[in-house]
Specification:
The structure holds two protein chains of two kinds. By secondary structure, chain A is mainly alpha-helical. Chain A has 13 helices and six strands. In chain A, a hairpin with a 5-residue loop joins strand 1 and strand 2. In chain A, helix 1 runs antiparallel to helix 6 and helix 1 runs parallel beside helix 12. In chain A, 56% of the residues are buried. Chain B is globular. The N and C termini of chain B lie far apart (56 Å). The chains are: A mainly alpha, B mainly alpha. The interface between A and B is large, with 82 and 93 residues.
Chain lengths: 377, 529
């Protein structure tokens, strides 16, 4: 493989790493928001739950921002086409997401019960909706999205907003929401005590069970739907546009990579085992192990999605031959190389200081301290 | 083809959300450093009052910070959602600094801001101070990379157009990040943030002094802020001059519009202190001129000149005619990237490609463009003069006003008489909006001045937008207005409430001291009282 093709594949892998980081780190915080009203019955209980993730949600959220930035830098055509094509859905994601930082910071600034109740609902919406949208967007990738380009490579999206909310996409959305709710539950178990931790455990167990069922149904569905086949293109590592290839659709084509490389079956297996492992660890009161097993589940699920689609990133259902792939939507060699350099230096650094931040704030949140601390959420 | 209404609505939405975002950014940039300075004094001297000062201003900082983070998310999305052609056309270059911002700066700022808030009990004073400095470093590095990205739009260096991939591609990373526009703009903008924070702290401290509350905290905070303010304002003005100097080279149309320079004049050029420019008639009404000054300002000499609108339009026409064969050959290349005739024609004319796009707005098949269409496109190449002229003057006037304010404040505080200067203190409270207005005016100059381009000379704004329907744009605009209005109302309310309540030092308004849910509901109204 030549250098450019290798860089394209490395960035495809890095994109996977970032999406996993996003799903695990942002997903757990959103999960806490989504289940907040159930696990916390009193105001103090809810504040304890919020303060479990309080010191970290902002840092975690950067995985989301970095995910956006990295797609922009490494696969600009994907960023441009997907973000504009999914316009209304993206706005839904954005508007619900931007309530979250405000909700965290402002909720406990006023003593009024009505005020806090309103923000609890806002945190529910901003925890639940984005994860559904995240999953639904991925679900749409499997089915293809109606878009095409003119000769200047201006993209045109020809579908409706409602078409994006089809049954398979909703299934993926609910799967993603279940996984984050489960991770949220596990996180609160690790950082709180008593009734909140108990209810969080219940949430985790229910949510993981649902996730296992949904992941299985989703897999069965994907195996039988029409996938995409790249029949002819200028080649990997060759500078090109999406106007120079031939793509066809075929039943079961999304499994072709798994047929060609059976070792890839380890990914869906990791998905199932992670979910099961997290379910059992949560049941037996081992939240830390349950968290790590949940992370394995996300690696398995996102890895499965990526490997099923490869080399496609954004297939076009209306003009299959203009589908976007790893080979035709990436940045130039120089940009990918520079970006790789920055990622190699900074990602380990980020992991290191994030771990330190978690280490400093380790242990259970003390309800008495939350009640008196000027700085608590 | 693009619907021009959609392009205009996309511009309106971007301008509105960006200007709104920038209400919160400067305060974050400056407050993080002021907090670090305040906490340094605490750690070095061990005086508890400085811990109180740090924590109080930290609380106000966080109310502002939440909205900065929230509205920043919009910006990260919006290039893709609303400017999709722009994003794919220059994403190879423009995306990189945004991603690096996330990797290098935003993670740093956001991870440590959590520890800054929650870490007071868990970290040693020295450790906490280091955390505060890392937050300041993170937020300022963040500004650096965003402004590197913006500088590429203003002065696209380090990149070339690749006809095989039909987009701009990076060819010199160092040129991109060390672009003189990026350097000058980063320093100018981040220091403008320090000025904003300084006025914010000075104004609120002045209000406490007027009310005779928290005198210790107010006097010390005021002194630190005016010192910080004098240095920062001087820096902003110096770098603003440098930026103008750099900008004059890179964007002659912006400079001509800023100065209301319709006709090219011979050196030494006079400066229009006041004028009422008419875009249609291409002339100024009610001009007040100061001789020699424009040459000194923009060329730093008495013999330098810069071209006026008349010459610039002429140049644009020539380049449009050169750009037409570039666009038509590119169309052939999009179908067959190896067509030798088209490749040859493209190579000859590629430097004018962007100008060819400029006329494509009026003639989709550019080879059929008439003289009128070319003249119209050339007229488009001049930004709106009156807006530029007055935004620029508003920014400069506010900047000079703030410098005078800080100098006066410094004299008073050094003489220890500031608490008796009631008129000055009242004035200080009214100064709080000034830096915010100046920052917004500055962005108007930078961005309206770059029109009709998103990437100067390369990519016209009209081509950059996503191809949405008007209905989608109306929907998203209404959504943003609704969400952002609710946000600003809540933010202002909480900010004013926190300021009225003051620090918990026992000599504030005890009624408003922190309550919990056990407080009777009637207390709710106290904040509004």
């Amino acid at each position: 493989m030549d250098i450019y093709a290798s860089l394209q594949v490395i960035w495809w892998l890095l994109l996977g790493v970032l999406l996993i980081g996003l799903a695990v780190m942002v997903g757990m915080d959103m999960g806490v928001g989504a289940i907040l009203r159930y696990i916390g019955r009193t105001d103090l209980e809810r504040r304890v739950a919020l303060n479990v993730i309080g010191p970290h949600w902002d840092g975690n959220q950067v995985w989301f921002i970095l995910g956006g930035g990295a797609i922009f830098a490494a696969f600009p055509l994907i960023y441009a086409t997907a973000f504009s094509g999914f316009y209304v859905v993206m706005l839904l994601l954005l508007w619900t997401m931007i309530i979250r930082p405000v909700g965290f910071e402002y909720r406990s600034k006023m003593p009024s019960a009505g005020w806090r109740n309103a923000w609890d609902w806002a945190l529910f919406v901003s925890g639940f909706v984005p994860m559904v949208v995240f999953g639904a967007a991925i679900g749409n990738l499997f089915q293809g999205v109606p878009f095409h380009f003119d000769w200047t490579l201006t993209s045109f999206y020809t579908g409706s907003f409602l078409a994006l909310l089809n049954p398979f996409a909703i299934l993926c959305g609910v799967l993603s929401a279940c996984m984050s709710a489960a991770m949220g539950g596990v996180t609160v178990m690790g950082g709180a005590q008593g009734a909140i931790a108990e209810r969080s455990r219940t949430v985790s167990r229910v949510a993981w069970t649902l996730a296992i069922v949904l992941f299985a149904i989703g897999g069965f569905w994907v195996a039988h739907m029409q996938g995409y086949v790249l029949n002819q293109f200028p080649g990997a590592g060759v500078a090109q546009t999406p106007l120079q290839q031939v793509v066809t659709r075929a039943d079961g084509a999304w499994l072709s990579n798994f047929r060609a490389h059976p070792v890839l079956w380890l990914l869906p297996a990791a998905g199932f085992l992670g979910m099961l492992g997290s379910l059992f660890s949560a049941s037996s009161e081992r939240p830390l192990l349950a968290w790590w097993m949940g992370a394995v589940a996300w690696i398995g699920v996102i890895g499965t999605v990526g490997c099923a689609l490869f080399p496609f990133l954004l297939p076009s259902v209306s003009h299959p031959s203009q589908s976007l792939t790893v080979w035709n939507s990436g940045s130039s060699r120089l940009t990918l190389a520079w970006m790789l350099g920055f990622a190699v230096v900074f990602v380990p650094l980020i992991v290191w200081y994030t771990s330190w931040a978690f280490y400093v704030m380790r242990g259970k949140v003390d309800p008495d301290q939350v009640a008196t601390d000027e700085h608590a959420y | 083809m693009h619907d021009i209404t959609v392009v205009d609505l996309s511009r309106l939405q971007f301008a509105a959300t960006a200007l709104y975002h920038f209400l919160f950014v400067p305060l974050t940039l400056g407050m993080t450093f002021m907090l670090a300075a305040m906490e340094t004094v605490y750690v070095v001297t061990g005086k508890v009052i400085y811990k109180q000062i740090t924590q109080f201003w930290g609380k106000l900082f966080l109310i502002n910070f939440a909205l900065g983070v929230a509205t920043g998310l919009t910006m990260e999305f919006q290039f893709g959602t609303n400017w999709s052609f722009y994003s794919s056309f220059v994403g190879d270059i423009f995306g990189a600094p945004l991603a690096i911002e996330g990797l290098m700066a935003f993670f740093l700022e956001s991870t440590f801001v959590g520890l800054m808030v929650f870490g007071w009990h868990r970290l040693k004073p020295g450790q906490h101070l280091a955390v505060t400095y890392l937050v300041a470093l993170g937020s300022n590095l963040s500004a650096l990379w965003i402004l590197v990205a913006n500088a590429f739009m203003q002065d696209p260096v380090g990149a070339h157009f690749n006809p095989t991939t039909m987009r701009m591609e990076l060819n010199d990373f160092a040129a991109l990040i060390f672009s003189s526009d990026a350097q000058a703009k980063f320093v100018h903008t981040s220091i403008a943030g320090y000025v904003t924070a300084a006025i914010f702290v000075a104004g609120i401290s002045a209000w406490y002094m007027l009310k005779n509350r928290h005198m210790e905290l107010a006097r010390r905070s005021f002194r630190m802020s005016v010192l910080f303010g004098v240095l920062s304002t001087a820096g902003v003005i110096t770098l603003g001059d440098a930026l103008g100097f750099v900008g004059a080279e890179a964007q002659p149309t912006k400079l001509a519009a800023m100065e209301g320079l319709w006709k090219t004049e011979s050196a030494p050029m006079p400066f229009n202190l006041m004028a009422f420019p008419s875009q249609e008639k291409q002339t100024n009404y009610g001009e007040v001129k100061i001789p020699y000054v424009l040459s000194i300002l923009v060329t730093h000499s008495l013999t330098g000149t810069v071209p006026g609108v008349d010459v610039l339009e002429q140049r644009a026409q020539e380049r449009i005619r050169g750009g037409i064969p570039a666009v038509s050959s590119l169309k052939v290349l999009s179908a067959d990237p190896n067509d030798p005739v088209a490749l040859n024609q493209f190579t000859t004319h590629q430097k004018d490609l962007g100008y060819g796009f400029l006329v494509k707005r009026y003639a989709d098949d550019v080879t059929t463009a008439t003289d009128e269409q070319i003249a119209q496109a050339a007229k488009d190449s001049i930004p709106h003069v009156a807006t530029m002229f007055w935004s620029f003057r508003a920014m400069v006037l506010l900047g000079l006003g703030m410098l005078a304010f800080f100098v006066l404040g410094l004299i008073y505080t050094l003489r220890n008489t500031v608490q008796y200067k009631r008129t000055f203190l009242k004035f200080a409270v009214w100064m709080i909006p000034a830096p915010f207005l100046a920052c917004e005016a500055g962005w108007l100059v930078a961005e309206i001045g770059r029109q009709p381009w998103t990437v100067y000379g390369l990519l016209p704004t009209w081509m950059s937008a996503s191809t949405h329907s008007v209905g989608y744009m109306v929907f998203s605009l209404i959504g943003f207005v609704a969400v952002y209005t609710v946000f600003i109302v809540i933010e202002m309310y909480l900010m004013v409430r926190a300021i009225r309540k003051g620090p918990d030092d026992g000599n504030g308004d005890a009624e408003l001291d922190r309550g919990d849910l056990s407080l009777p509901a009637s207390r709710k109204t106290l904040a509004e009282a």
